[in-house]
Inverse folding.
């Protein structure tokens, strides 16, 4: 058996940090070659820390790591991408934090998954750019797929029959679509419109550059948000905490947009 | 953590070690060291320490105006006649008020949020003293609100969120300048800090 080197370098995107002791941070990061990994950043909470700013959540950084007894320790860090536009926009930063929490929740530690790294990084870059509405559902669908939870969107999860157009529902606990003849007991069943089903299939099938061009109706977007949210809750067996704040911000944005569109007729739903 | 596995430790001592271990930043080793230090401490010093802890719990309350910790509400800062009532500085924690007061530059009032919005930890705006701040600003003479949350991701998000709420209420909303710390080193600054410092440059 060869002993692993004491010092190694890696690239990483910081998913989150939690205070540790007086001045340290415990970092949860996603790396291209090791998947999700945790490390200690010593002194990173001090104002003059050489590490601090480089290791804020959502930073992509190049790191020099020293192997520790329990956790590895970051000995040097240099930010590669700061995603400043994301950081300085409430809607964008809430989406990015949601994505980071999803990656953290769905991936096991120390299990390399390069497609997930790529997906997360590309999604942050798109969020830094024009951030189209299809980005979040696209990210969620592909994250599920790369983690081995590809949602079924063509057949009934109960009887395996091919779905007939217009005759379908959604069963989040079973990870996909349900025909209208099946009534498995004790299952949460959500309505699923044909438009939304088509959009979900399209986003699942296409690469991002094509998916991004899709025009989405607000109703479809909301339905998709609800279905994918329910699906993720079932897969993760817990609530996605950051999605609550994202909902608050999105709701707020919608109300603002409506108020701006009809200043004389400002009605809250 | 319990110290049942240490039969050689007297029960009161084990309890003290446990209590210390609950404090933030205190590991089991430090907890033991502190406990043994207390044993050798003169009785009157130990009493004085215990009293100080009780006094904090019994006499300290939150100011109903600024939410800072205080002995009397409204706190001395809020009731002072010499403070500039047209300015309100919003901070994360009571300790931030102390830091800003030490500068002796700011003469306005404060509002303490008691935390930051941290979506990933499930801490939303409703968990902070934001509603109290909005109540306070209604029909008030405040002309400027200074958002002095930390330049961290959570601090920035909190500032952005509050900024939205304040827009219709306050004529002027400002944010503390973000840039390089005194004694810092350009070489070790991250790109976000550096680009902000560059934008915030001043004539000299
Ligand atoms: Zn069926
Ligand atoms: Zn006060």
């Amino acid at each position: 058996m060869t002993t692993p080197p004491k010092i190694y370098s890696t690239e990483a995107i910081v998913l989150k940090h939690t205070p540790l002791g007086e001045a340290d941070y415990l970092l949860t990061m996603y790396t291209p070659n090791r998947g999700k990994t945790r490390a200690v950043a010593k002194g990173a909470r001090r104002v003059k820390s050489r590490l601090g700013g480089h290791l804020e959540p959502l930073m992509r950084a190049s790191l020099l790591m020293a192997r520790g007894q329990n956790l590895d320790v970051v000995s040097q860090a240099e930010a590669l991408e700061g995603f400043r536009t994301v950081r300085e926009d409430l809607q964008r930063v809430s989406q990015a934090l949601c994505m980071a929490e999803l990656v953290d929740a769905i991936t096991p530690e120390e299990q390399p998954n390069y497609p997930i790294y790529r997906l997360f990084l590309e999604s942050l870059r798109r969020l830094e750019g024009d951030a189209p509405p299809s980005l979040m559902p696209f990210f969620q669908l592909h994250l599920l797929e790369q983690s081995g939870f590809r949602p079924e969107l063509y057949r009934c999860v109960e009887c395996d029959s091919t779905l007939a157009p217009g005759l379908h529902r959604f069963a989040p606990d079973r990870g996909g679509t349900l025909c209208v003849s099946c009534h498995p007991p004790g299952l949460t069943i959500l309505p699923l419109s044909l438009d939304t089903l088509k959009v979900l299939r399209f986003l699942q099938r296409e690469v991002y550059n094509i998916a991004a061009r899709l025009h989405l109706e607000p109703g479809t977007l909301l339905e998709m948000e609800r279905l994918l949210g329910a699906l993720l809750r079932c897969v993760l067996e817990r609530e996605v905490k950051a999605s609550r704040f994202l909902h608050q911000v999105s709701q707020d944005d919608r109300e603002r947009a409506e108020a701006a569109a009809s200043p004389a007729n400002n009605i809250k739903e | 953590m319990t110290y049942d596995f240490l039969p050689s430790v007297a029960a009161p001592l084990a309890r003290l070690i446990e209590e210390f271990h609950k404090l933030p930043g205190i590991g089991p080793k430090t907890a033991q060291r502190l406990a043994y230090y207390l044993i050798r401490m003169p009785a009157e010093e130990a009493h004085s320490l215990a009293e100080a802890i009780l006094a904090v719990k019994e006499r300290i309350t939150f100011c109903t105006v600024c939410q800072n910790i205080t002995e009397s509400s409204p706190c001395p800062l809020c009731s002072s006649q010499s403070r500039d009532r047209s300015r309100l500085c919003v901070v994360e924690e009571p300790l931030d008020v102390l830091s800003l007061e030490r500068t002796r530059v700011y003469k306005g009032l404060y509002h303490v949020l008691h935390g930051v919005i941290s979506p990933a930890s499930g801490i939303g705006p409703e968990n902070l003293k934001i509603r109290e701040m909005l109540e306070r600003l209604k029909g008030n003479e405040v002309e400027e609100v200074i958002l002095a949350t930390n330049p961290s991701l959570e601090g920035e998000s909190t500032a952005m969120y509050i900024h939205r709420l304040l827009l219709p209420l306050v004529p002027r909303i400002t944010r503390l300048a973000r840039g390089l710390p005194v004694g810092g080193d350009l070489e070790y600054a991250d790109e976000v800090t550096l680009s902000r410092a560059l934008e915030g440059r001043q004539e000299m």
Observations:
- The beta strands of chain A are 7-20, 24-31, 35-41, 60-66, 72-81, 168-171, 176-179, 190-191.
